[in-house]
Write a structure and sequence with these properties.
By secondary structure, the protein is mainly alpha-helical. It has one domain. Helices cover 58% and strands 11% of the residues. The protein has ten helices and five strands. It has a three-stranded mixed sheet. Strands 3-4 form a two-stranded antiparallel sheet. Helix 7 crosses helix 10 and helix 8 packs antiparallel against helix 10. The radius of gyration is 17 Å and the shape is globular. It starts with a helix and ends with a helix. About 6% of the residues have low confidence.
Length: 220
């Protein structure tokens, strides 16, 4: 991805949000419920923040030629929102902070907690359905999803399935469910968005996937 003042601005805002969030202890509470030490929690957050600046190219899709590259009028006024020209292809990437790190941490939770595989499958599948139904393609931007729908659903489902292990189950169901339901199952819609690059996991650190996992744990 080329350097963009927007990405730098988002990174600075994410860092400021992280500092304020940690100050009121919500992230510490969430990771404590997941059994992480403070050192491990801060390492995970650091990996998420740094990883939010990294997108790994995966494959390309043929763009819908009938849909021109465009931005909403309110964003087009700002020069750093300008996108590269669409060349008939959409490059699909995986954001390290918004996709790779949450998936890796979910696998860690599965390996280190006595979770029932069927309950994991049910929790993930339920959030996949909810995330897919509630997400919408936004032309010129990407796939959008209301922030609270997935974490609330993940927390409620995890509590009903396994009250004793609801925190890790909520995180796994929320993060994997959003990645699959709002990102992977929406790949066909990306062809019509008029963007040259689309990232699984979005902007990274405080994108829907990361926030969904933390909120789901706090609500569980």
């Amino acid at each position: 991805m080329p350097f963009s003042p927007l990405r730098l601005l988002l990174f600075i805002l994410a860092l400021a949000f992280l500092i304020s969030f940690v100050q009121i202890g919500l992230i510490s509470i969430a990771f404590d419920k997941l059994g992480l030490s403070p050192e491990s929690a801060y390492l995970l957050l650091l990996c998420t923040l740094v990883g939010s600046l990294i997108n790994l190219p995966l494959f390309s899709l043929t763009a819908d030629s009938s849909v021109p590259s465009r931005l909403p009028p309110e964003r087009a006024r700002w020069p750093f929102f300008n996108l590269p020209a669409v060349t008939g292809k959409v490059m699909i990437t995986a954001n390290v902070g918004g996709a790779v790190v949450p998936v890796a941490f979910s696998l860690y939770l599965i390996a280190h907690n006595p979770l029932n595989p069927w309950q994991i499958a049910i929790a993930v599948a339920a959030v996949v359905i909810i995330a897919h139904i509630s997400s919408r393609p936004i032309p010129g931007i990407g796939i959008g999803i209301p922030m609270l729908i997935a974490p609330v659903a993940a927390a409620l489902i995890a509590t009903m399935l396994d009250p004793q292990q609801r925190a890790p189950l909520a995180y796994i169901g929320g993060t994997l469910g959003v990645l699959v339901g709002a990102d992977l199952l929406r790949l066909k819609d990306i062809r019509k968005l008029g963007v040259p690059i689309a990232s699984i996991g979005g902007a990274g650190s405080f994108d829907g996937v990361f926030v969904t996992g933390l909120l789901a744990v706090l609500l569980a």
